[in-house]
Amino acid sequence: MPAIGRKKRRKTVCIVGLGGLGSSTSSIMASGDSADIVLIDDDMVELTNLQRQVLYAEEDVGKSKAAVAKERLLDINPGISIRSNAVRLVKENIDLLRSDLILDCTDNLETRHLINRYAAERGIPWVYCSVAGSYGFAKAITADTACIECILKGKDQPESLGTSGVLSTAVLLAASVQCRLAYDLLLGKKPADELIHFDSWSQEMTKVQTRKDPGCGVCGR
After folding, report:
1. Is residue 7 included in any domain, yes or no?
2. Helix or strand or coil: residue 148?
3. What's the mean pLDDT in 97-121?
4. 96 located within any domain
5. Cβ–Cβ contacts within 10 Å for residue 206, how many?
6. How far is it, in rounded angstroms, from Cα 100 to Cα 105?
7. Owning domain of residue 48
8. Side-chain-side CA neighbours of residue 142 (13 Å)
9. 3-state DSSP call for residue 131?
10. In total, how many domains does the chain have?
11. Is 190 domain-assigned?
12. Which of 130, 146, 180, 203 lies at a CB distance of 3.0 to 4.6 Å from 210, suitable for a disulfide?
């Protein structure tokens, strides 16, 4: 069939985690109309979430974040397709990640490693992002860059949401950085192999060069 007149397939972005970072990131991605969206999160909305989780309101307390997020994102852009999964990402349902791009908006290392391994095995680009206090980290990861295992080498992630509050300004900055990296990947641009560190309090941003580990047990095989 000739390419002329054939409808181009829309890309799909999978967003894992719909807390502060995930609600802001998904809002940006939905309004950008760049791809259809898959949502994954098993949490319920809590009153303490509302300070930094922009998709939810007080009347949503006790409801599924995935279900509420889908409704709000369709209000933003009814022209996109959204699949909502109110489940925790585990090995048994890992194929929910099947997409053109994965955006990591989680707050735990176990899920992050699941994403890292799945993406490496299937050659799916993804964007790591995390926030703690006033600062955060972000990195675009493809088959040609260092993965999270290359960087951490078995150590814990540098931030801990359990011991640090999160500023709403840091969440919004993190979402902006993550979505910019996401847009570049969706456009087919080759990302720099670097870890971005940003701080909304000091308004500083630094980039640390990273290198793929040929002996990495995840992406070096």
Report:
1. no
2. helix
3. 95
4. yes
5. 10
6. 16
7. 12-209
8. 16
9. strand
10. 1
11. yes
12. 146
In a domain, residue 214? The reply is no
pLDDT in tens, 35-86: 899 999 999 999 988 888 999 999 999 999 999 999 999 999 999 999 999 9
Spatial distance between the Cα atoms of 77 and 182, rounded to a whole number of angstroms: 18
Q: Indicate if the alpha-carbon torsion angle 195, 16, 153, 184 is positive or negative.
A: negative
Q: Which two tokens stand for residue 142?
A: 């493809």
Find the helix or strand (DSSP H, E) in which 85 lies.
Answer: strand 82-85
pLDDT at position 198 is 93
CATH number of residue 92's parent domain:
3.40.50.720
**What's the pLDDT at 25?**
97
For residue 175, CA distances in Å to 4, 19, 24, 31, 84 come to 36, 11, 6, 13, 20
The one-character DSSP state at 79 is T
Find where tokens 């391994």 sit.
117
pLDDT in tens, 169-195: 899 999 999 999 999 999 999 999 999
- The model's confidence at residue 2, banded by pLDDT at 50, 70 and 90, is very low
Q: Find the DSSP H helices in 46-193.
A: 65-76, 109-122, 148-152, 168-186
Q: What is the mean pLDDT of the chain?
A: 89
The β-bridge relationship of strands 126-132 and 135-141 is antiparallel
How far apart are the C-alpha atoms of 198 and 216, rounded to whole Å? 26
